[in-house]
Amino acid sequence: MRIEFLIFLVVCLFVLLKFRGNIRLHIILNLIMYGFYIYLWWMMYQPYTNSHHGDKGLGFAFVTIATIPFYLLINLFNIFIFREKKDSNQLIIFYTHVTGLLLCLTHLIAFLYMIY
Prior knowledge:
With 116 residues, the chain is mostly helical. It has helices spanning 3-18, 23-44, 55-81, 88-115. It is elongated.
């Protein structure tokens, strides 16, 4: 795994802390995070070209194992922050991260089913 990706995840967590009331930021961050998983699944089912058959699967596994804890942490942390639901903006952010948590768990279950 590349260090740039870990730095990206840490920066995302700090940005969420800094701008925690900005709805667009939370929605865009979740779209980027889970869009990346869609990209991984798409790459997984492309035909093999000039590589070993297990290369794509191994890369998929490494990236999934490395990102799942961070994605769970980001979503659970924000669910904990916005659980009070004081106004409609916080309610939207809360449900955005609940949806993100469900998508993350769905990806994890599909990944575990795939390797089993």
